[in-house]
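Changelog-linked ticket: flavin-adenine dinucleotide example.
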Amino acid sequence: MSKTIKRVVVVGGGAAGWLTAGTIAAEHDAHLDSGIEVLLVESPDVATIGVGEGTWPTMRKTLGRLGIRETDFIRECDASFKQGTRFDGWYTGAESDRYYHPFSLPQGYLKTNLVPSWQERRGQVTFADAVCVQSHLCERGLAPKQSSTPEYAFVANYGYHLDAGKFATMLQKHCTEVLGVEHVLDHVTHINSAENGDIASLGSKQHGDIQGDLFVDCTGFSSLLLGKHFQVPFMSRKENLFIDSALAVQVPYESGNSPIESQTISTARGAGWIWDIGLSSRRGVGYVYSGDHVSDDMAESELRAYIKLSLGNDSEFAEFRKISINPGHRQEFWHRNCVAVGMSAGFLEPLEASALVMVELSAEMISEQLPVTRDTMNIVARRFNEKFRYRWDRVIDFLKLHYVLSARSDSDFWIDNRDGASIPDSLQELLTLWERHYPAPADFSQVDEVFSSASYQYVLYGMGFETLPGPATRRSLPREKADTLFKENADMTRKLLAGLPANRELINTIKTSGLRAA
Ligand SMILES: Cc1cc2nc3c(=O)[nH]c(=O)nc-3n(C[C@H](O)[C@H](O)[C@H](O)COP(=O)(O)OP(=O)(O)OC[C@H]3O[C@@H](n4cnc5c(N)ncnc54)[C@H](O)[C@@H]3O)c2cc1C
């Protein structure tokens, strides 16, 4: 009879490791005698990557599923609310060039498509402002909920900005104390193979051999199990996405009561872009760039100039941390009895914060479809690989979209990004389609797309894309109905602008009084 899967061993104690261990342990009641054991081993000698501060709204569901209180999370991880991203200078590079990709869906999105109606008035109002309240809330630094809104519930959809180091510490405490995850602090030195080629156990410095039935590789860039042991090839996507370097820095607020931005700010620069993330305690800022288009020294000067705007001459003393990025992913993610999650599976770049959401989606699928026996594992593995290969390709299309739509010609970085050879065929096909068709959910094949057509709409029309209008008979909405939806959005905007607290104010209230449990 095929071996029963009882013991899951997660290697790596970064965000990927703890989120995966916690998701499996919570869903399978590992703290009870349920038959599933989860062990996490992490090296005391290899530090976690320590960046990764922007999340998607999915993180609310993930934290809720782990049984973590939102109040505790916000207090312990210096977290703040993220309602989307503001893109500065991506289209023309001019001073006034900015647009929003908010998390809330466009007005009426599930029933209709407002793009054709908005196109008729595109000279008067931006797409995001016309169809969504959230760009207005972000402009004024407002929170996405009130202090009376229960934990994880929202008035406007939101994710978080968080301190990555504190996040891993909080997850570790919760996973070990509440969810029953066994924690081993030791360096994995080698892998012992079973006769059939599976991983039988992991050799460690102090704890001998660590046995398991399923091994989850969360070892970050080293990809110890999937990459080094199984030699699953790495597929570089550098031909599509040019970013290969990052400089990261922490920037203090002027005072403990400085406003907190409601969105990630992404500012285009000569060879990449600068992220600016407001936590409750400080800002996390960094420049991701293509080393083929700018030297490290020049990149450092560009980043220093950016933080000088808020730090003044103190910017001279700021210390930058350099991180190398190899954009790409493994050819497959689940091989034999080993599945990779997080940076060990792949990483592209921080644009649109797609890394942690891929971790959440991976953990969810592994947990929901956890194979009962070794025989069924190959079937689950094949499905997992199909699903995630599709997802990586879709993420690449969406990230590349931001670069392809730019009209900037002030540096080779932006010009090279529009070279047809660097654009995936799948994205080129969509762009051709959207020249005559308005982006809609039916343009994508899966119900649980990572990026919905709503996200494409915000970026396309935020960056000046034009769809040629079809005959009036093919417009999806009569003018009066569209006007009603635009008016509903404007009315709701007025109401929320008057009723929502500032981001900082809500964070302060949560720190002192907490939020009502869901
Ligand atoms: C510049 C930059 C910005 C980013 N910004 C974002 C963002 O805004 N949003 C987002 O979603 N993501 C972002 N990411 C990605 C995000 O940081 C990662 O997805 C996330 O932190 C998960 O990392 P990880 O757990 O896979 O790897 P790591 O944090 O590197 O953890 C690896 C773990 O493996 C362990 N390990 C390694 N070797 C061994 C061994 N031999 N034995 C035992 N243990 C071992 C280490 O000790 C460590 O615990 C960013 C990444 C970069 C580089």
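Closing comment: Example verified and attached. The mean pLDDT is 96. The CA atoms of residues 308 and 315 lie 5 Å apart.
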